[in-house]
Write a structure and sequence with these properties.
The complex is a heterodimer. Chain A has nine helices and nine strands. By secondary structure, chain A is α+β, with helices and mostly antiparallel strands. Chain A folds into two domains: about 5-30 and about 265-300, no CATH class; about 40-260, Alpha-Beta Plaits (2-Layer Sandwich). The longest helix of chain A is centred in the C-terminal third of the chain and has 24 residues, at about 275-300. The two termini of chain A are about 30 Å apart. In chain A, strand 2 (about 95-100) and strand 3 form a beta hairpin. Chain A is elongated, with a radius of gyration of 27 Å. Chain A has helices at about 5-25, 55-65, 75, 120-125, 150-155, 190-195, 205-220, 265-270, 275-300; strands at about 40-45, 95-100, 105-110, 130-135, 140, 160-165, 170-175, 200-205, 240. Chain A has a three-stranded mixed β-sheet with strand order 8-1-9. In chain A, strands 2-3 form a two-stranded antiparallel ribbon. The termini of chain B are close together. Chain B is globular and about 65 Å long. Chain B is an all-alpha fold. Chain B has helices at about 15-35, 55-65, 70-80, 90-110, 120, 130-155, 170-210, 225-250, 260-265, 265-285, 295-315, 320, 325-350, 365-385. The chains are: A alpha+beta, B mainly alpha.
Chain lengths: ~300, ~400
Amino acid sequence: MKLDRRKFLKIGAAAGGAAVCSVATPARARDEREPDPNWYGMLNDSTRCIGCKACQVACKTENKLPTESTIGDQKVFGDAIYDSPRELSEHTYTLIKMHQDAATQETTFVKQQCMHCVDPACQSACIVGALKKQPNGAVKYDSDLCMGCRYCMVACPFSVPQFEWQRAIPSIKKCTLCSETRLKKGEPTACAIACPAEAIVFGKRTDLLKLARNRIEAEPQRYLDHIYGEKEVGGTNVLYLTKPQVAFAGLGLPDFNYKAVSGLTESIQHRIFQYFIPPIAVYSILGGIMAYNQRRKNAAGKLGGDDEY
Amino acid sequence: MSIKAAPLHQKFITPNFWVLIFFMVSGAGFAYFRFFEGFGSVTNLNKAYPFGVWIAFDVACGVALAAGGFTTAAIVEIFGREKYHALVRPAILTAFIGYFLVGLAVFFDLGKYYNIWHALVYWNGTSVLFEVAWCVMLYLTVLGIENIPNVVEQFSGKVNLPGPLAAFNGLGNWVLGKADWFTRKTMAFFVIAGVVLSFGHQSSLGTMMLIAPYKLHDLWYTPMSPLLFLTSAVSVGIPMVIFEGTLASKFFGRKPETELLGSFAKYVPLLLGTYLLLRFLDLAYRGVLAQAFDGSVAGYSFLVEISLFVIPYFALKSKKVRHDSTKLFLCALSVICAVVLNRFNVFLIGMDMGPNWDYFPSVGEFAVTFAFLALGVMMYKFAVNYLPILEEEH
C-alpha cells in the first residue's frame, strides 16, 4: 500500500462518514409506480358470477392445459366439493371458487388468476428478470431466461406463480392475460369472452375503474363500496367487486395495504449499494485498521502476540 | 509462533471414509430422480412451500455457518490478533468448502440448473437474490485465492506428476511460482474484500424474505433483518471454529486446542451480546414479543431459538466455562443450533404461504443434504491430510 497511514485513515473516515449519511437518510420510499393508461386488465364482478366455470374451460382450451380431477376428494373431505380443481396449479391458470362469508353466511363465486400487478413483486424478485410487465399491462414470464429458483412464488402476495413439480425441466406457470395468444391480435382474454354473465369484463384498466365505479353508483345496495385492486399492493390490473355482505378477505383477497410489497427490499438494496459508497467505505475502514495494525507490528519489530481484549 | 502448519499424512481410507462414501452414494441416488424425474419425485416441496430444506439449511445455514472464515480472517489479519494465527487456515478452508457446497446446493435446487450462469448475464438490480448470487460467487473466488498459499507451500518447486505427465512438472512449478508471487502481492486486498463481500451477502440473505410481508411471521419480519442476519453470522463464526477444531482434534487423534479455542471464545459474548441487544431492541420497538407466547409452532420455535442464543451468551462470560473443553464445545454447539433454527424460522417455520399445505422434508431431501455434508467433511479430510492446514501440536 503506497498511501501512508494518515492519508489512508483520512480517506477511510471520509468515506465512512459518507456511508453513514447515505444509510441514515430517512427511509426515502421508492417511487410509486403509476399505472399506464394503456394497460389492459379485467374486472371480476363477483356479484354477477354464476359459477358456471366457462372461463375455466376457455382458459384450459386457450392454453392447451390438461384437466385435473378431484374424483376421490369426497373420501378425503367427507363432503363433495364444488370447487374443481381446488387450487391454482401448473395446469390451472384460473379458477372459480365458492366462498362463504364467515360472518354473514352469504355465499358467492369468485375467480382467481394472476392479478397482473401495477408494481409486480415477482418482477422485483426475479434474479434474471424473467418476469416483466409488458406495455400492454400483462406480467409476462420468459421460460428461457428463468433459472427455476422459485423466489417469485415466495414474493407474490397472492401466491399465483406455480411450479411444474413433476417435470424434469420445470417452468413457472401462470395466467398470461392472453398477451401473446389473443391481445396481440386485438382480441380480449379467453375467459372474458366465455363469460355468459358479464362477470368478467376485459378492457383498459382506466376504463374498468370507471365501469366499476358506475356499477357501484348505479346499484349501491348490490355492491360493497370498494374496488379491490385499485390501490392494493400498489394496484393491480385485475379488479374485483363484491357484495356488501361478503368481505374481500373472504374471497381470498386479503386486506393488503396500498404499498407495493417490494418497496422495503428494494429500498434496503438501494441504500446498501448506493453508488457502491457503503461497501467502499467498509473496505476503506477495514483497510485503515489493517494498515494501522501492520505498522504497529512492524514498529514493534516482532510478530504480534498482543492479547488485549 | 514459529510452529508451522503441515499436512497430517494419516491413513486416508478409514472406516469413517466409508461412512462418508455411503452418505454420498445414497444422496447421488436421490439426485438422479431430482434431475430426471422432477422435484415431485424426491421432495415434499409444494405450492405453499417452494423453498424447502435445501434452501433453508444447505444455502441459508450453509452461508451463515461458513462465517468462521471471514470472522477469523478479520480478527487475525485485520485486527492483528496474531495469537490466533493457527486458526486462520482451517477456518478459511472450511469457509471455502462451505461456499462450494452452497453453490452445489443451489445448483440442485434450481429448476433450470443449466441456466445458473444467467445470474451473471441477465441483471435485475432490484432482486435481492441478484446481490446474493454475485457476492457468493465473488466470495467463493476470494476464498479460493486465499487457499492458494496452502497449495503453493506444499508443492512449489516439488511438482512431481506420475508417468508421462512428468513433462508438465516444469509448467506446474512455473504456475505455482506465479500464483505465489500474485497472492503475496495481493493477499491484503483479498482478505479485506472477503470481509466486505461477506457483509454484503450475509445481510442480503436477511433481506430476502422481507419481500413477503404477508407471509413471514411478525417475530421475524423486521426491516432490521439484514443487520440481524449479519450480526448473527458474525456471532456464529467463532463457535464454528471451536466446533470444527474440537471435532478435528478428536477425529484426527490430535491434542485438543482447548487453551487457544477457549481464549478465542472470549470474543463470543461481545459479538453475541451485540446481536442480542439489537434483536431485543427490535422486538421491543415493534412490540411483537407477546406473539412468542401465543402457543403457536412459530412462537415455540422462537422461544427455543432465543434460549439457544441467550444461554451460551451468559455461559461464555465465565472463564471457567471457556477453558473446559466439553462446556466450551456445548456452548459453541448451542450458538450454532440457534443460528440454524433462526434461519429455519425465517425461511420455513415462520413462513405461512396459505392454508391446506404443510411441509416436512422427505427422505430424499435429507439424503441429499447429508450427502452434501459428507462431501464437505470428505473435502476437509482430504485437504488437511495433504495440505499444510493444521499446525503442529503446541
